Amino acid sequence: MGCADFLGCFKPQPLITEAARTVPNQPKEAIPTRASGAPSNETRTNGSKSSHAVGLRNSITKPPTSTLRNYNAIVEVSDNASEYYKEKPQPRIDWVIGLDFGTTYSGFAYARMEEDPQIHVYYEWPLKENERHYCKTLTGLYYKRAGPGRLECASWGYSARTEHMDHKSGPNGGQGHYLTKFKLLLKPASKKNDPVHAAVIPPPPPLTRDTVITDYLKCIGGLALSVLRSHVGETIFSKDSVKWCVTVPSIWDNNAKQKMKECMVNAGLVDCVEAVQVVLEPEAASLHCHEILRRDHQHKKDVSLNVRDKILVVDVGGGTVDIVVQELIASGDHEFKVRELTESSGGLCGGTFVDERFMRFISKKVGCLEEFLRKDSPSYLTKLLLDWEQIKCAFGSEMMSSSETMNIRLHYKLSPKWEAFEKEHGRAIEDSSVVELTQQDLKSIFDPVVDEILELIAAQLKQVPDIKVMFVVGGFAGSPYLMQRIRARFKGRVKHIVSPPSPGSAIVQGAVSLALNPEAIVSRVAKKTYGTSVMRPFDSKLDPPELLKVTDGKKYCKNRFDVFVKKGTDVEVNKLCVAKGYVPHSHGQRQIMFDLYSSTEQEPRYTVTSDTVTYEGGFVVDLPKNWSKDDAPEYEFSMYFGRSVIELKAERKISEKGGQEARTMSVPVKYASSL
């Protein structure tokens, strides 16, 4: 069922806003509370007109006022109405940059906008001796003190780790703070004092999530732009000629995706959030893997894909695992189109969680390790994880025998402390300079995380059993042990299980490909029910008395959930889902605000009183200065739920002088995050 068909199943219920300017022929049967704009009419995607209008903000679920701060920095709006609505010429796009901002590693690829573009993956990261050549650099930052209560970003990537390890004295390296895994800060917080934030940005650094992410994007994005300048020359290169495609996990909510766009603006890479295209990581990987199979068709005829074949993509990164099931609906030398078959799924069970299990294992083995890291050499943790990385990447490879053990050599100052610790507890150790890891030890570290990944795959296969190809990509897909376990578990249920060459670069290459092939993703499945908060006639048999509001002698129920798109609905990417008309309701009003809620239920009744409903944020449109009540600006809001980010587009109806027909002009829309 398409989006238009779905919305057409419901009988429209007329709504108006409280204290709103009366719109001719507008029924007054239901009222949203404390509205920021009055609805005029609504157009469904099938073109029919109805009086079903939607309310905006309500008093009970009012979001924090801080959510609307600093938006002038994102979209500059002139107080002069003619300037505000002045159409600006779009810059010519000559380049596409795909940016993969990962939990553990990040990288970028780029291509020139031309008929047969060649995608270039950046590999020239600075490496120390014995470090492996890789398509990404570390997602890490090193901050130094720049005065009382102030820190400044001193280095990033591999260089940040090197500088941190060089400053070995005192807590936090003595000279500054080394931060990693800050991508995880974009996940929805499970509680007010989220332990993930405390682990990534421990006190007392005066740093925030937005500051850290923006600093990193500024560093890696600046390098990407400098690479393009080297191709075309400093004098003729313009950052406005670049289209940015930023990859995000499909399991992220709309707030996290919008926050990435805002951080790109704050990093100075683009001038507005509309200039950033969000690409879902497993979808990018799917297109890249399809192109590999197409290029190698002469050599791998048995792995070719045909229309109606079903694909399962498993993106196993450092922090997140993303799984999407697609059906191929068009395939050819220059055509690739897919539709999503199930709600994408995933979880926080990537390679970095294997690292955490290793740290728990070795901390239990070396009982004084945590104290040593806290008091003697905090920077040794980085060296310890670097040594572990080599073992992690080798485990399960054909080069290792089933009985081979691996050793981690300990810090020379830790060895005597460990020996003394064991002696104090009545134990003796044969060699305090190394920790031995047997094959069974390694399995105990890997298996809980790997088992979780396998169960996520199995859950998708249960919904769509006839999968022809499973693509496994992402940095952790380079683990021989993980691939062994995946093939052993699913070889009888999936015809082909493929991990492409350099699986860590699959997503960033696919991001560029998707930017060059924007029609590739035809439809997605709505993961939640989306809507807004309105008032409707009060039903004493169903509605609680605390939601009762009496207006003009009529009883209304506040905080009713007005559904736009229902969970599990197949939503086409470029099909309009909801269109509503609005006018401001009071003189001096400077903005129209449109709140958005989501629910894991298919038929939520209220936007409050339920743990299944979340305030997602809202959309904000600035009004021209000194608009008059007699000639209030009229807007139409168009909402798209099938895209990688929920989008609202706003157009204003402009009256022409001399009896000419009115025209519409696009106006800027800002997203007010609830994060």
What does this structure look like?
The model is unreliable at 1-86 and 169-173 (pLDDT under 50). It is globular and about 90 Å long. Strands 12, 13, 14, 15, 18, 19, 20 and 24 form an eight-stranded mixed β-sheet that branches. The chain starts with a helix and ends with a strand. Helices cover 26% and strands 27% of the residues. It has 14 helices and 31 strands. With 675 residues, the chain is an alpha+beta fold. It has a domain at 351-361 and 378-445.
The tally of beta strands, per DSSP, is 31
Distance N to C terminus: 33 Å
Please tell me how large the radius of gyration is. 28 Å
Number of helices: 14
Helical percentage? 25-40%
Tell me the fraction of residues in β-strands, as a range.
Answer: 25-35%
Largest sheet data: 8 strands, mixed
Overall, the morphology is: globular
Mean pLDDT: 81
Poorly predicted ranges (pLDDT <50, ≥5 residues)? 1-86, 169-173
SS-based structural class?
A: alpha+beta
Write a compact overview of the structure shown.
Helix content is 26%, strand content 27%. The chain is of the alpha+beta class. The radius of gyration is 28 Å and the shape is globular.
What labels would you give this structure?
single chain, globular, 31 strands, alpha+beta, eight-stranded mixed beta sheet, 27% strand, 675 residues, six-stranded antiparallel beta sheet
